[in-house]
């Protein structure tokens, strides 16, 4: 088995350098999800980037709900991520444009929206669709501090969202009743 053990993945995420980013492997992502569930896939994605958190969120009636999340500092779980109006989240731009990242967070001059001034300072996300092609939400990395975005990772994140489509159910929930 070429997959690293789950504990090694967690340790790699906890010890990652602020500027480190590595290119992922979609087959490895598939192995993590099929073996350990959707949250393990979210953890794997987080291990690839310098962002503190990675999350899969769904949109329902203009509100985003966390389906699964991983915090590399092990302080937050999916249940700790609050429901947020879509208009007060960077996810709105990933949904609108297909992908979105910012390297200056809430201070980005083009945003100029006081609803976005909050705790998330760095964000990279992509639109997440269900298998039937309808909107699910976003798959994203974020941090409460400034992070230089590894823009080379954006294409991989888009491909990962496509791979994860089959793991979100048409009703809007993730498989295996994962909630964080």
Fold topology:
Layout: H1 6-14, H2 26-36, H3 38-47, E1 53-60, E2 63-71, E3 84-85, H4 91-97, E4 99-102, E5 122-129, E6 135-143, H5 154-164
Antiparallel strand pairs: 1-2, 1-6, 2-3, 4-5, 5-6
Helix pairs in contact: 1-3, 2-3
Summarize the structure.
The protein has 180 residues and is of the alpha+beta class. The chain has five helices and six strands; from the N terminus they run αααβββαβββα.
Structure description:
- The chain is α+β, with helices and mostly antiparallel strands and 180 residues long.
- The chain is built from five helices and six strands.
- It has helices at residues 6-14, 26-36, 38-47, 91-97, 154-164, and strands at residues 53-60, 63-71, 84-85, 99-102, 122-129, 135-143.
- A six-stranded antiparallel sheet has the order 3-2-1-6-5-4, with helices on both faces.
- Helix 1 crosses helix 3 and helix 2 (26-36) runs antiparallel to helix 3 (38-47).
- The longest helix has 11 residues, at 26-36.
- It is globular.
- The model is unreliable at 109-116 and 172-180 (pLDDT under 50).
């Amino acid at each position: 088995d070429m997959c690293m053990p789950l504990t090694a993945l967690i340790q790699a995420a906890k010890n990652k350098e602020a500027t480190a980013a590595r290119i992922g492997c979609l087959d490895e992502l598939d192995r993590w999800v099929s073996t350990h569930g959707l949250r393990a896939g979210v953890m794997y994605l987080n291990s690839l980037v310098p962002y503190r958190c990675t999350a899969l969120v769904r949109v329902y009636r203009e509100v985003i709900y966390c389906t699964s999340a991983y915090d590399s500092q092990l302080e937050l779980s999916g249940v700790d991520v609050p429901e947020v109006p879509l208009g007060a989240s960077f996810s709105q731009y990933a949904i609108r444009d297909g992908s979105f990242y910012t390297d200056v967070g809430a201070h980005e001059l083009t945003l100029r929206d006081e609803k976005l001034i909050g705790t998330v300072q760095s964000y990279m996300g992509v639109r997440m669709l269900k298998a039937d092609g309808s909107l699910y939400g976003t798959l994203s990395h974020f941090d409460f501090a400034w992070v230089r975005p590894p823009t080379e990772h954006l294409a991989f994140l888009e491909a990962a969202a496509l791979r994860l489509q089959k793991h979100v159910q048409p009703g809007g929930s993730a498989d295996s009743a994962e909630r964080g």
